[in-house]
Design a protein that fits this description.
The chain is an alpha+beta fold and 212 residues long. The protein has a single domain, classed as Methylpurine-DNA glycosylase (MPG) (3-methyladenine DNA Glycosylase, Chain A). Strands 1, 2, 3, 4, 5, 6, 7, 8 and 9 form a nine-stranded antiparallel beta sheet that branches. The longest helix has 8 residues. The relative contact order is 0.23.
Length: 212
């Protein structure tokens, strides 16, 4: 069933794992200024990061200028640069002052496919947005969208789209967090839609989504 409705602030103001579960099947949309159209698709893979006690979370060492958005109101975008080459897109969750977010790892591209292909030339469609760095490249997401408001903004937003039953969801440990404590490395906080061909593959996971 297609649901198409803009997500409210209350949707994000909940426990992060609940938000992560609910985001699967929603549609992420990037709208370009100056009549540039829209690009996006169904969210098929996410990861949760929860509080200063989560050693995989950017807030594990406290508040900094880089991670301050994590402490902000729910529903804001937290966009950061990693490995000197990749942008990553997160949505802030839970109450203001508590640092938590969901990393959007992969979508099934549905809108603006030609524009997405131009940003990811020479790639098969299943590789266009199958990882957080690929997704940001495909949708033109960078530092300028840090603190964008998913609820009120026009450049980046999320809509309810397709309901996903629990049996269709796979939960696994998160990817690329070897630096974290064992309890956080094994926490099943990565969620994905089992049937999707656009999620991060096992081989790619080991390389942490190099754009190649």
């Amino acid at each position: 069933m297609l649901l198409s409705a803009r997500i409210s602030r209350q949707f994000f103001d909940r426990p992060t794992l609940d938000v992560a579960r609910s985001l699967l099947g929603c549609r992420l949309i990037r709208r370009f200024a100056g009549g540039g159209g829209e690009a996006g698709g169904r969210i098929v893979e996410v990861e949760a990061y929860v509080g200063e006690e989560d050693t995989a979370c950017h807030a594990s060492r406290g508040r900094t200028e880089r991670n301050r958005v994590l402490y902000g109101p729910p529903g804001l975008a937290y966009v950061y640069f990693t490995y000197g080459m990749h942008w990553m897109l997160n949505v802030v969750t839970e109450r203001e002052g508590f640092p938590a977010a969901v990393l959007i790892r992969a979508i099934e591209p549905e809108l603006g496919l030609e524009a997405i292909r131009e940003r990811r030339p020479g790639r098969a469609d299943v590789e266009l947005t199958s990882g957080p760095a690929r997704l940001c490249q495909a949708l033109g997401i960078d530092r300028l969208l840090n603190e964008a408001d998913f609820v009120l903004g026009e450049d980046l937003f999320i809509e309810e789209w397709q309901a996903v039953p629990d049996l269709a969801i796979l939960r696994t440990p998160r990817i690329g967090i070897d630096y974290a404590s064992r309890k956080d490395r094994i926490a099943p906080w990565r969620l994905l839609i089992r049937s999707s061909h656009h999620t991060t593959g096992t081989r790619r996971s080991r390389a942490y989504n190099r754009i190649s």
